[in-house]
Amino acid sequence: MTYRAPVKDMLFNMQELAGLQALTEQIPAFADFGIDTAQAVLEECAKFNEDVVAPLNWEGDKAPSYWKDGEVFTTTGFKQAFKQFAEGGWQGLQHPADFGGQGLPKTIGAACGEMINSANLSFALCPLLTDGAIEALLTAGSDAQKNTFIPKLIDGSWTGTMNLTEPQAGSDLAQVRTRAEPQGDGTYKIFGTKIFITYGEHDMAENIVHLVLARVVGAPEGVKGISLFIVPKFLVNADGSLGARNDAHCVSIEHKMGIKASPTCVLQFGDHGGAIGTLVGEENRGLEYMFIMMNAARFGVGVQGIAVAERAYQKAASFARERIQSRPVDGSLPSAGPILHHPDVRRMLMTMRALTEGCRAMSSVAAAAYDAAHHHADAEICKQSQAFYEFLVPLVKGYSTEMSLEVTDLGVQVHGGMGFIEETGAAQHYRDAKILTIYEGTTAIQANDLVGRKTARDGGAFARSIAAMVEATEAQLLTRDSAAARAVQKRLTAARLAFVDVVNFIAANARSNPNATYAGSVPYLMLAGNLVAGWQLARSLLVAEDKLAAGEDAAFMSAKIATARFYAEHILSRAGGTRDAIVEGADSVTALALDAF
Amino acid sequence: MTYRAPVKDMLFNMQELAGLQALTEQIPAFADFGIDTAQAVLEECAKFNEDVVAPLNWEGDKAPSYWKDGEVFTTTGFKQAFKQFAEGGWQGLQHPADFGGQGLPKTIGAACGEMINSANLSFALCPLLTDGAIEALLTAGSDAQKNTFIPKLIDGSWTGTMNLTEPQAGSDLAQVRTRAEPQGDGTYKIFGTKIFITYGEHDMAENIVHLVLARVVGAPEGVKGISLFIVPKFLVNADGSLGARNDAHCVSIEHKMGIKASPTCVLQFGDHGGAIGTLVGEENRGLEYMFIMMNAARFGVGVQGIAVAERAYQKAASFARERIQSRPVDGSLPSAGPILHHPDVRRMLMTMRALTEGCRAMSSVAAAAYDAAHHHADAEICKQSQAFYEFLVPLVKGYSTEMSLEVTDLGVQVHGGMGFIEETGAAQHYRDAKILTIYEGTTAIQANDLVGRKTARDGGAFARSIAAMVEATEAQLLTRDSAAARAVQKRLTAARLAFVDVVNFIAANARSNPNATYAGSVPYLMLAGNLVAGWQLARSLLVAEDKLAAGEDAAFMSAKIATARFYAEHILSRAGGTRDAIVEGADSVTALALDAF
């Protein structure tokens, strides 16, 4: 077994932090999806991913998907695994029953998403993108588009892609040049080049539904002139059967540092007369729709960070239990013992574990907010939940993926020299993880979102309301007399105060000094992510202390307490330095003359 | 040009921080090696590495050295480049003129070492290991051994290797099992397997001089029973000509994440009757001699960290100057401009630059201490310099290599999606750098050395003497009225106080609570490295302010001031959190039950 899904930790988060019970009680559509269903789903999902998907991970690194004559052939085993994935109904987990989905809350779905990504980041990207396409069509597609495409996407016959990037348009989508010419029959001809298209071509499904950003001839410059089109690989006949091959072709795939089994395609649209596309929603509102897709995908990529961190942790812990080197410094063994006995190895593994569990807890709470925002009957709860979710998305994406770099680095480090040898497998996680801080918006793009839309726009009000929630948890910690609770409270308070200082700094400077504000954007994101993850672990500690006192699952609860305390003392303790750098060091970021670089 | 050596910064460090002038005045052997010589050597070295070695870096990644039938064929171009390297006299730079070297101070040699490593880490490893072999033989070899081997190593006819690791003996050399049987004629037969042997086999030299740790039959258990042997690939006749092929064979090379052009060999000694070796020095003192080699190599690996960081910085800065995306947030350009205008890109580049310059300054000062320790006529200065150098070696090795992971990560990040594409080249630095925190002693091994031998052994006295030197620099900063000096002084003082707290913690706990002490060992190393690098940049700022006031090289001096201030505000500011984690968080490192991992 190369991967064992952390089902217990996931269920703990859903039940104790995310309020799954309340969701089932307050939202009729979720009435059947309580903790027992969650457990059954997670166990089934764990089995599939542990047995079928995880063993293909290293295979995909050794023998990546490859391109030949316009076609892409995925790693041996992927096609069969995707068939099983589709047949198991996993693509439809969170999607509406009307279109063949299972309508589960995201609170459960996110945990399943973590599992498939732990098992195999490269494989999981195909469903991740398809999920995004489904969400975009659900929101902005016509009934005909929904009925034509969504059931096929959900049953795994077809898959979806997102086509944003062009050579000159990366983070800056205003530069999109792909052209759409109306044909007068309701269709458009699409011409242009898209790059970095994940699973833009492959052999696992009958058809590929490309969602493409393009500019209708005569549209305004910039992001206000971008429209969204469905451009399927094969045109779809009125009866739903496949028609002609569309003029959308994969001309090459990239040679990447990681996620090698996931084909990253250059797609040429319209080189042979024009690719046929249909408009989604209204003209010039494409970016708005794409953001729906992108927000789903951003959350998903954050979960990828947690997923690869978990896998790296499991691998390193397993190695540390078995590798014998040197006698422990405390003399607790008579001679050389497993390296798990060495304090620095413990420090590395605890760091990996604490970061992973902290981000998992944060993502679980974010998923529950999404569920409430989308399904709760009370409009005020919807609004508050939506604001909370939107604040958390850049943290889940930015912080969880940045932390995955630290975790996968430590994962290699625990292995010593063996970690650098590819066959060991630890290096693959290190290489794979590095894309996560880049795609679906780099960490800087997430941070811009956090600073601009989520913090400065309301003068920091919502951010301060999060600080108030953290403070409430501190108050609960203060009622405890355990050393762990005291230690966590101390660090949580310090981190929260640091966060508030930064929020105030941003609110004060956003207009008057944008350079200073954005100089601290990524550090602010890291501080906010650190705080929210640490806060969730502090909440976990409160629950775990109660359950431990009640004699419930002592090993698990003790571990939760130890991990929460470690997080507070070793990760939350970074917050003060981050605050100082942002608030007192803003000017030095842009002090060096441009021509001195 | 893919790499331009930072000659000016190196010369600044030598002259203004490391005291090259004093070395030339006080040490007769260095009388000719003043700043003018340094400049001439560095410029020549820059030319060779920029023109000949650097272009082979990406080649080596694409077409790594490979093994066939016991032989290793290096990347096309390496053999010719090595010939030029040898003919240029670069291997002998720091070695005695008696054996054909040039006898330059390490203060100059270390800068040359950085250049070749920036140009090509994989290529540079062969000379790096040869340097170590030369140092070990100079210290412990017999006259006959010195005369036979050193001139050939210096002129590049032969190269050297270090054979420590065995499958069961990585960080724990007590487990070495390779066996040496005395033959009664002064030679020994060596039997065993060594792994991870860098350039253990290759085609760039006529002979390879393996220095091998082995256990003489009947020797004590553990590290006190290990001896050091010379086991050449080809035996050497009395006249110095090559004799029979020795029974030391490369049976495979590793498939690694990075430094792919550097062959990492599994060597079998004695599978066909026994490899012939001769003892270096006395029996059972092998580890002591190997430490000479290892200390040289550790310093050298630290310089590798600086080198790869510099290369990654140059690549990222170049990309940031050219890549056009989005309008700057301060509206300083009318439309989309180079990403160098974005504050977060500036933050990333400044972080890369500050870490690199800080570690370079630290290594330059360490190199000068080595020179004084080995050559000064005053015994007290030798002793103090040696203690200072020995304190700095784990920082140069540990901190510079850990920082190189951060820098190469940022290097990829600045490139966005392009960074993940191998052809861009940023990813290679990220992959290459990861070995640096592992080989020649992992960061944890460096930290053990720092905590045990360098700090706890004298109750923290020497560490406190470093703090006192830092305090003297703070006092100088306090005499300045510039905002930069004030900002740097504030952070330097805080970091120095944090460092002293940790030193006191270690001194108090080393015996009574080894787990708590070693739980903080790597964070202590990071804090100490951070402080010493930041201190050197603070000293740089003092010099640069004076020179700027004198109207000397305003662009360079202004950049030095800006970089020093950035380092203080953004990197030194991490020190408080690190201190808290070590001093207040020690117990949580080892609180989780072993069976909970």
TrEMBL record, chains A, B:
Main enzyme class: oxidoreductase
Coiled coil: none
Transmembrane segments: none
Protein name: 3-methylmercaptopropionyl-CoA dehydrogenase
UniProt KW Lyase keyword: no
PANTHER family linked: ACYL-COA DEHYDROGENASE (PTHR42803), BROAD-SPECIFICITY LINEAR ACYL-COA DEHYDROGENASE FADE5 (PTHR42803:SF1)
MF annotations from Gene Ontology: flavin adenine dinucleotide binding; oxidoreductase activity, acting on the CH-CH group of donors
Annotated Acyl-CoA oxidase/dehydrogenase middle domain residues: 162-271
Domain Acetyl-CoA dehydrogenase-like C-terminal residues, every copy: 468-592
Keywords, ordered alphabetically: FAD, Flavoprotein, Oxidoreductase
Boundaries of every Acyl-CoA dehydrogenase/oxidase N-terminal domain copy: 38-156
Catalytic activity: 3-(methylsulfanyl)propanoyl-CoA + oxidized [electron-transfer flavoprotein] + H(+) = 3-(methylsulfanyl)acryloyl-CoA + reduced [electron-transfer flavoprotein]
Cofactor(s) annotated in UniProt: FAD
